[in-house]
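Example for tutorial group B:
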């Protein structure tokens, strides 16, 4: 079933929730896209660490789309969905949803941004390492 903009719901697990603050804004009062992207990297990193059961590193980000501005005082909720696990790498799709819980309560989230992050599991020397099966997230056939 296709979702319309009005009926769309977050996809994936809620991995990060934070508050947009005044220090995170541009001169027009919108939150910097770079701040949103950094929160997305934190969220993807949390999931990557759980999937890889240890240290992992960002190797690429693609398909970044900022759909609407995030305002000061909005709660930013980031949802992650594991799309693919390779021998050492992971692909994680993120969605950013925002709603006001500070100035005026908004019961509904608004879809604000999305991206695909690519991570690699690394050892203590920063070299790629194999990702073992992790039944909480995936198993190999």
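The residue assignment follows.
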């Amino acid at each position: 079933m296709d979702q319309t903009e009005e009926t769309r719901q977050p996809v994936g697990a809620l991995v990060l929730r934070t508050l947009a603050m005044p220090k995170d804004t541009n001169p027009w009062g919108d939150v910097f896209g770079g701040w949103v992207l950094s929160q997305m990297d934190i969220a993807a990193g949390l999931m990557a660490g759980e999937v890889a059961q240890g240290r992992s590193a960002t190797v690429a980000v693609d398909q970044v789309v900022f759909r609407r501005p995030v305002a000061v005082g909005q709660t930013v909720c980031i949802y992650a969905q594991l799309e693919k696990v390779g021998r050492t790498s992971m692909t994680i799709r993120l969605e950013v949803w925002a709603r006001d819980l500070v100035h005026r309560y908004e019961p509904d989230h608004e879809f604000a941004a999305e991206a695909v992050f690519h991570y690699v599991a690394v050892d203590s020397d920063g070299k790629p390492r194999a990702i073992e099966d992790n039944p909480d997230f995936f198993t190999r056939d």
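Residues 33-52 form the longest helix (20 residues). Compare this with the pattern of hydrophobic and polar residues in the output above.
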